[in-house]
Amino acid sequence: MLSLAQKQLIFVHDMLALGNTTLFLDVYPLHTFYAERGSHALEACLPSRKSIYGNTQHPVLWLIREQKLQFGINHGEILQAFEAIEAGDTEKSVECLAWHEQKNIL
């Protein structure tokens, strides 16, 4: 039988794992899309990103329930981060993406 402290540690571990996985599932495809298609395509497609959730032909892996955190919301920090990359401002890009991750995903 697990103690209360052990149960709490397991819960914290599971929540951290879910947060990290959700973060990866949100940010990695953005970087891949940007690397393959560039900033103009990313800017054009970001508003419609949320509509790909639930597509049976190309399903999106999203482990957290859609009712808790909707997939693909076009938060302003995303485009700002990639615009900063285009401008060569790595520091601002990291700041914008970190803000998106902390505020909008976690």
Describe the structure.
This protein has 106 residues and is mostly helical. The chain has one domain (19-105). It is built from three helices and no strands. α1 (4-45) packs across α2 (76-86) and α2 runs antiparallel to α3. The protein is globular.
In short:
The protein has 106 residues and is an all-alpha fold.
Number of helices: 3
Helix content: 55-70%
**Residue ranges: pLDDT <50 for 5 or more in a row?**
none
Characterize the largest beta sheet: strand count, sense, and whether it forms a barrel: none
Strand content: under 5%
Quick check: average pLDDT? 94
Shape estimate: globular
Using only CA atoms, what is the Rg?
Answer: 16 Å
Termini, distance in Å?
31 Å
Taken together, the total number of domains comes to 1
Q: Which structural class do you get from the secondary structure elements?
A: mainly alpha
Per DSSP E runs of 2 or more residues, the count of β-strands stands at 0
H-E order: HHH
Topology summary:
Blueprint: H1 4-45, H2 76-86, H3 90-105
Helix pairs in contact: 1-2, 2-3
